[in-house]
Design goal:
single chain, about 375 residues, alpha/beta, Alkaline Phosphatase, subunit A, Gyrase A, domain 2, 2 domains, 7-stranded mixed β-sheet, 15 helices, globular
Length: about 375
């Protein structure tokens, strides 16, 4: 039930599933690498003739949020393109891996923010930590996710310096050349140098908008950060040599949740052994044989704010982009509870995220639709 004093005004009727193979995040890098052979309809047409490409990923820049604020982002709104879909769940770890590796979650196996590695052991992918602390020795990133980034192509990555050597960076950017930046003003300079060196594809990542949305929600701080993001995009566009293109996308959008936190009814939690995932895409790990009753219970008691499906249904419907290897399927829970309204679901064992104002992870349009925009110099 929703905590006292809160209200929910918006609910979506059906989950928006990833458009794998027809305009989703795992499709972006393969399309850019193969652009000279032609581009699919969801890719801006001018990219086919681009001599070089910069792919800039703006963490948390949802299509709907951008479309609602065109005056704040004149550079972005002047670019060609439209929306594509994120992945399931629409969370940073899963989505960034899908971009850099060029394969869906079913293949790369980084299937959530907090992911089960063994009975009772949950790995926080962004921090690469379990309840025992740093997990890089217990769960080596290169073994948890063994694929090479960018499908083996030599692609330099311009990202924040502090990410170098972290578990998640190792897991989703394996084999890439990292070029760190200390402040956003250095991103365009580093990109320009890499293009001058002759690199065919340059990948750049900026996390600031997501950070601001989590802490402040939508408002003055978010608007100011979006203006700064647009200025960053303009600076990179200005750094492009003739014939090069800038492509902008994002890992997910955002939903403003504030303190609207749902505690699952005790009739449901009685069968729950533990939880994984995150507030808007919560996995319930239930006692054997309880999955069907748990799905039915969530739909009956929380159907006004949630979707509930079994692991088997999600896999069969292709939520993760294909068949899952047994060890990847084991990283999922038994029942998925997804927020269909602007709420989050409570997990007593999850710490550190209870104060976030904006969140993501579920399959609503605000979270799933991200831009794919381009400008050719």
């Amino acid at each position: 039930m929703v905590l006292p004093g809160t209200s929910v005004t918006t609910q979506e009727a059906l989950p928006l599933l990833p458009a794998f193979g027809a305009g989703s995040l795992p499709d972006v890098v393969p399309a850019l690498l193969d652009r000279r052979a032609g581009t699919p309809s969801w890719v801006p047409a001018e990219l086919a003739g681009a001599r070089q490409v910069v792919l800039l990923v703006i963490d948390g820049l949802g299509w709907n949020q951008l479309r609602e604020r065109p005056a704040l982002a004149p550079t972005l709104t002047s670019m060609t393109g439209g929306p594509i879909t994120s992945v399931a769940p629409s969370t940073t770890a899963c989505a960034l891996a899908s971009i850099s590796l060029g394969v869906p979650p079913a293949v790369h196996g980084l299937v959530g923010y907090r992911m089960v590695m063994s009975e009772g052991t949950i790995l926080n992918l962004l921090r690469w930590r379990t309840s025992d602390g740093d997990a890089r020795l217990a769960w080596p990133p290169e073994e948890v996710q063994p694929l090479t980034s960018f499908r083996g192509h030599d692609v330099p990555v311009v990202t924040q310096s502090l990410y170098a050597g972290t578990g998640f960076t190792t897991a989703h950017l394996s084999g890439a050349r990292l070029r760190g930046w200390r402040t956003p003003s250095g991103i365009a300079i580093t990109v320009r140098h890499l293009l001058q060196e002759g690199n065919d594809l340059v990948y750049a990542y900026y996390p600031g908008l997501d950070t601001v949305a989590h802490e402040y929600g939508f408002g003055e701080h978010y608007d100011a950060e979006l203006r700064a993001v647009d200025a960053l995009v303009a600076s990179i566009a200005d750094a492009l040599p003739a014939g090069a293109a800038l492509v902008v996308t994002a890992d997910h959008g955002q939903v403003e949740v504030d303190d609207r936190v749902v505690h699952l009814d005790p009739a449901i939690t009685a069968a729950v052994r533990f939880q994984s995932g995150e507030g808007r895409f919560r996995w319930l790990h239930v006692t054997p044989g309880a999955s069907d009753d748990t799905v039915a219970g969530v739909r009956e008691l929380h159907g006004d704010v949630a979707w509930a499906v079994s692991r088997e249904q999600a896999i069969d419907e292709g939520w993760f982009g294909g068949a899952l290897a047994p060890h990847v399927a084991a990283r999922l829970g038994d029942v998925a509870v997804l927020a269909s309204a602007p709420v989050a679901f409570y997990d007593p064992d999850e710490t550190g995220s209870s104060s976030m104002r904006c969140r993501h992870g579920s399959l609503t349009a605000d979270e799933m639709l991200v831009p794919l925009l381009a400008r050719l110099s």
